[in-house]
Amino acid sequence: MLHLRIISPPDTTPAVERLLTGADAVTHVVVLPGSARDPVGDLVLCDVVREGASDLIARLRDLGIERDGSIMLERVDTALSAAATRAEKRVPGLGVDAVVWEEVEHTTAAESEISGAFLAFMIVATVIAGIGVLLDQPILIVGAMVVGPEFGPLAALCVGVVRRRPWLVRRAGTALLVGFAVGMLVTVATTWLLDALGLVNRSMLLDDRPLTSFIWQPDALSWVVGFLAGIAGMLSLTSAKSGTLVGVLISVTTVPAAANAAVALAYGVTNEAAGSALQLLVNVAAIVTAGVLTLLVQRLTGRRRGAVRGRAGR
C-alpha cells in the first residue's frame, strides 16, 4: 500500500475528493482545507493499494495537480486497518506484482545521475574487481559486483525506452558511458601504480586464472545469465521485492568485465582486453533487452487488469 500526500488548489479539491472517494483502490481519505502554505492549497491525504496507484496518479495529473500543487508517494510497510483490507480485496491482483510507473521512473532517474557518489562507487568497484582479476579471487569479484552502481542507469535506460522518455535514455546512457570510462581509466592508473610498487605484475594477468577466466571469455551462457539477471533486476525494482536486487548484482559481470579490460589494457594484453569488452557489451545488451521486455509484459498485464476493473465498475 502507498500513502499519498496531495496539495490541491482550492478550486480543484472537490474534483480530487470525488476522485478519491469514488476509487475502489483508495481508503483513509482526509481533507484539510487551507492547510498548505507552499504551494498554497488544501492538503489531501489518502492511502491507495499498489494495484490502483498508477491509474489514480494519472487521473490526478490530468486534473493539473502536478502543475498547480503536488503529489507525493510514500510506501506503507504496515497498515492495521479493516478499511485497508477491504480496499485490497476490491482491487484484483496482488500488490507485489503491481507496477507504480511514476515511482519506478522517479527512482531510476535519480539513480542515473552522474553524482560524485556514483563515480566514487564505480571507481571503487572497478579497482576492487581489477585486483580480484589479478589475484584470481572470486570473493573480490563478488564484492565489486555488489558495490557497482551500474544497474541503476541500466534500469533507467529500460524505463526510458518503455515509457518513451528520451531525456531519461540520454541521462542513463551518459551515466553508463562516463561511469565505465572513469572507472576503467582509474583502474588503469591504479594498476600501473601497484605495479610500480611491486604489488602486482604482468605475469599475474598472463598466468592461468581458472576462477575468473570467465570474465574475459564470453559465450552463449553469458547472454543467458545477463538476460535472466535483467528480468530479476527489473522485477525487484518494480515490485515490493527490492531485497532481491543484491542477488541480481552478484550475477552480472559488467563491472568485472570493465575492470579486466582496464587491467589488460594497462599491460598491453589486447586479446584479453577485447574479450572483456565483448563480455561487457554482451551483458549490457542482455540486461537491457530483458529489462525492456519485462516492463512491456508488466505494462500489458497492468492494462488488462485495468480493463477488468473498468468492466467490473460498470
From TrEMBL:
TM annotation in the entry: 116-135, 141-162, 174-200, 220-238, 245-267, 273-297
Record's keyword terms, sorted: Membrane, Transmembrane, Transmembrane helix
Keyword Thylakoid carried by entry: no
Top-level taxon: Bacteria
UniProt cross-references to InterPro entries, sorted A to Z: DUF389
Pfam assignment, any one: DUF389
Name by which UniProt lists this protein: Putative hydrophobic protein (TIGR00271 family)
